[in-house]
Amino acid sequence: MKKKHGFGLLARQKAAGWGFLAPASLLIFVMSFYPMVKAFITSLQTGPAAKLAWADPIFKNYTRMFNDKVFLTAMGNTFLYLLIQVPVMLILAILLAQLLNNKDLKLRGLFRTLIFLPCATALVSYSLIFKTLFANEGLINSFLKGIGIIQENVNWLGQSDTAKAVIIIALLWRWTGYNMVFFLAGLQNIEYSVYEAANIDGASGWKTFWHITVPLLRPVIVMTGIMSINGTLQLFDESVNLTNGGPANATITMSHYIYNNALGQGVANFGYASALSFIVFIMVAILAFINLKVGDTRD
Amino acid sequence: MTKKILALMLALCMLLAVSAAMAEKLTVTAWDANFNGNALQAAADDYKANVDPEFELEINIVSGSSDVENDITNAGSSGDYSLLSDIVLFQDRYIKNFVENYPDAWVDLEDAGINWDDITAVKQSYSTINGKHYGAPVDNGTCIMAYRVDLLEQAGYKIEDMKGITWEKFLEIGKEVYAKTGKALLSMDGSGNDLPYIMLQGEGVSLWKEGKPFIVGNEKLKRVVELLIEMEKEHVLILSNDWTGYTNETIMQDQVAGVLNGNWIIPTMTQVEANSGKWQITSMPTLDGGEGFATNGGSSLYVTGNCKNPELAKKFLAYTFGGSKQTYDEALRKGGVVTCCISAGQSEVYGEGVPFFNNQPVYKDITEMGSKIIPIEESPFHYVLRGYLGTAMQQIKDGADIDAALQEAQDATTFYMEGMGY
Amino acid sequence: MTNTAIRRKPAVSHIQRKLIPAYIFLTIMSFLSVFPLYWMFTAATNTSLEVAQGKIWFGSYLSENYKNLIDQQNLWQAMGNSFFYAAVQTLATLLICSLAGYGFELYHDKGKDRLFAILLLAMMVPQVATLIPLFTMISQMKMLNTVWAFIIPGLATPFMIMMFRQNSRNFPIDTMEAARIDGLSEIGIFFRMYFPMMKSTYAASAVIVFMNAWNAYMWPRTVMKGNAVQTMPMLIANMSNGYAVDYGMLMLGVLFCSLPTIIVFFVLQKQFAEGITGSVK
Q1: Which residues in chain A have Cβ-Cβ distances shorter than 8 Å to B242?
Q2: pTM of the model
Q3: Fold of the domain built from segment(s) A68-297
């Protein structure tokens, strides 16, 4: 392109700009959007993998999911995780970041590293660790019995409410530190003088937090918010590895159910699985859009 | 850096080229290095020593049968079989579905020269499609009902007393055992729901009827479910949350006086060395009395359409898993893999007393029990149904109405099958 | 970041006293964060039965576990594979995404901004949905079982492009102009000026990409078959699903699988913090 004669300097710069982003953009189109289009076509088909045929009526896979009790349960579970885990995690992460941003605090680096470490652990290991900790005769039960909070072992992963709680705890454990790092970075971009001014005005710690820190961090909150919403709506590994969706589908997530339909149990229903994942895609996109809009208008 | 990468890639390509050039080599994919891996190694050693010294078997271990099943689904739906090994191992129930959907992904074993009369009927029933044999047997999923003899004794019973009883009687004894020893007589992975399936099989009843799920209206199933729920209430049965809970807690942490499952559960039991000599096995009870026999799990080897040398693969399978005493003896010694080949089960190694089981020749007993299992109707949707049945069990345990929960399981399975055009 | 010296005011002890709740809270959080990892270490030194029974102290079975692991699994080959794939992935992804981030930010115009917004949608495409179409595509390209199959879907991710795009805002446009007048080509500016200036962004991104690539399971599992290409997460998954699992040995494997990412983070943590800081400006 550069060799062409008659190209002005500006035009050449412009071409260079497109040249820089072309490989990545092309890759994303080929590796994400094209398969998604294919998945959409598949979502209009039905039958075993090798003999897919057009569904009749054509949107059968889409209308079908409204009668699918397991999918509706999975959707409920996923949104419950979203509503509890994401806010708790983000607030906790901001709080930790706020504490660690205090220049008077000693051992900041050590605290930061330790709290970040969980997200460096491989997924297979982390689910294994949590399963063992929350087992009937596991450490959590012995500890709680030891300090007298419970009298009998709690079957954490065997009851629907506690199993959901364990999944949320596991997610909090793994991702709070990760998000904290982003908030910490955001805080470091805020001038320290803003806080000193607040201190002189006699604002309490909480007041400073809610009225200065949170508003200034809004762009970071929007970013981490989108990442977390996306991650939670597509939650898969924890459901598969920690509880296998049980007991009685009480913890199964949408992605887990899609996977069960696509590959699990040897009898794959690709058409239906594709339709389900398309719906998840639309949900994520809508929520991300709302998140962006809310983040914007307050600016 | 790029040079190094290039060099590495080149090395990789050469490796691949070399492996393709060797004709006497086969690849196989299986899961569980200690169990299936050892069995395959035993077969490879046997073939190498007695048939072809040039022979080589590359064993690829994956994390489970589902990995192999996913590979086949991927390969079948993309039409690219190149990632499939020459031979693959997976659970017995899927082959029918796979042959139906991807017929050219398989090579049948009709002309392999295996003496099928020597393989148990129930094993053959899984992998015979339209009269053609596809699967070479590896392990035998025959169920064992194992009891802790010392704990039974404390409650005033002997192992002989447990043979041929009804499940009601089992429940009574279980209550006494729990009262005397604090241990349950049975445990199960609550999400895997092995027990209803196993117990029903002992009655010769299937969860399927003419290709449709047979949950609602299946009186024996309802009785079995009611019994299990009752057992759980009386501390005779521990329902674990998942497989790890079943193996690690109930069996390895010594919470049970009885184990009922496919005999591949034995390596888990023997990990608790302190209990060596205290266990013995027998057949399981039935609803109306008499001995019950069943099978659970178990898998077979299949030659894939990607196999470069199907003749060698067939020869290898026929010689080894087709009935070689050496293969099966070694597979048993090293991996605890029990044959479903009748003649191989009569070898000396099988007849030896096993110290862990109070010197009972359990392996001979298992192969004998295996030959008494009645084949029942199966379906590719077997595990789909069992998943929903497990959900129903958990709901009933938590107080749901039994008929409503079973109806839901029936509906959910039907819903799944309808979505696939069945 | 700029003022790390302890401030010598008379009120230091008073300030520290006020911080006591913060110290307590942070200590508890750190403990909760690290405890499961500590348990992973101890479990690697215990027997299978002890692990299953939840023992929390160090045992004496480490060498035995190691011996079993080496005997039964191709540990070092899997470590080598994982390292090779993750390293190639990191290098390639950083190059492609930094080029894109640089292009989107420093050459930005309406068209590019719009394209960027569209690309962000890719973040929301569920992995389960694209698994089969991607597999078919890779198989048609004859890349199955090669390093390409491993890295291609992760070469360009919206998140990484965004990371570089945000950080590029710190890159002074005036210097670009000066460089152009000096006759440096556009690509020359990227490699000679942008690249050295953005070291901490590269470091932060490297940590994230490496971690994700090292821990990747579902996709590699789909396109890579056989012992020769096995990665660490596959090895662990394979060990953890047998009929009778040796938990001591398994936890040692888990430890081996976790160490590299932890080490990478420790080595690069200063640059990591700086790079992330640039991304949220």
Answers
A1: 131, 157, 243-244, 246
A2: 0.84
A3: MetI-like fold (1.10.3720)
